[in-house]
């Protein structure tokens, strides 16, 4: 039987966040402070098959790369992102979508998600829905994972691949 006790503050907050906002009154202009994202993407991806690995190419020779080539490749990625100068760092329990969008509004050009646990992310749809949200304005986006199994990390990275620009591995 479901509990008959009143919802906790956290449950009340989560339920209030899940309800769609009321439409603006007729004839009123939309307040830009109230719409930082156009629409949230469905990031649960429960029925979505994993992205297949890319075919080998000249850029991924399958051998250790020399330092100069790696440095040039890193700079090319940075330029491809638009050479961002202000990047929101990954902060556990603090760099969720609303915070990232607020930072972007005030000048951040790129942002990280909070650190996500790759095993839980791949195994638990509820964890994915609660911990990973984004929208099309939340780009460039770095998704950070911690992991101790390379196959699980790869699976998690493939799940977020359509929704981010880079996957960051927390080795600390």
TrEMBL record:
InterPro entries: Aldolase_TIM (IPR013785), DUS-like_FMN-bd (IPR035587). Keywords: NAD, NADP. Pfam families: Dus. GO terms for molecular function: tRNA dihydrouridine synthase activity. Residues 88-172 form the DUS-like FMN-binding domain. Residues 49-58 have a biased composition (Pro residues). Residues 1-66 are annotated as: Disordered. It comes from the Eukaryota. This is tRNA-dihydrouridine(16/17) synthase [NAD(P)(+)]. It comes from Anthurium amnicola. The lineage of its organism: Eukaryota, Viridiplantae, Streptophyta, Embryophyta, Tracheophyta.
């Amino acid at each position: 039987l479901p509990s008959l006790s009143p919802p906790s503050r956290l449950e009340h907050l989560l339920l209030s966040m899940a309800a769609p906002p009321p439409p603006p009154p007729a004839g009123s202009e939309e307040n830009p402070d109230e719409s930082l994202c156009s629409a949230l993407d469905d990031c649960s991806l429960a029925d979505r098959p994993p992205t297949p690995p890319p075919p080998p190419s000249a850029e991924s020779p399958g051998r250790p790369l020399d330092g100069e080539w790696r440095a040039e490749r890193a700079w090319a990625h940075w330029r491809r992102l638009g050479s961002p100068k202000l990047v929101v760092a990954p902060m556990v329990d603090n760099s969720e979508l609303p915070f990232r969008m607020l930072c972007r509004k005030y000048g951040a050009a790129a942002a990280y998600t909070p650190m996500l646990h790759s095993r839980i992310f791949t195994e638990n749809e509820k964890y994915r829905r609660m911990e990973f949200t984004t929208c099309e304005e939340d780009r460039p986006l770095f998704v950070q994972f911690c992991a101790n199994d390379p196959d699980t990390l790869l699976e998690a990275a493939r799940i977020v691949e359509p929704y981010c620009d880079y996957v960051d591995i927390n080795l600390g």
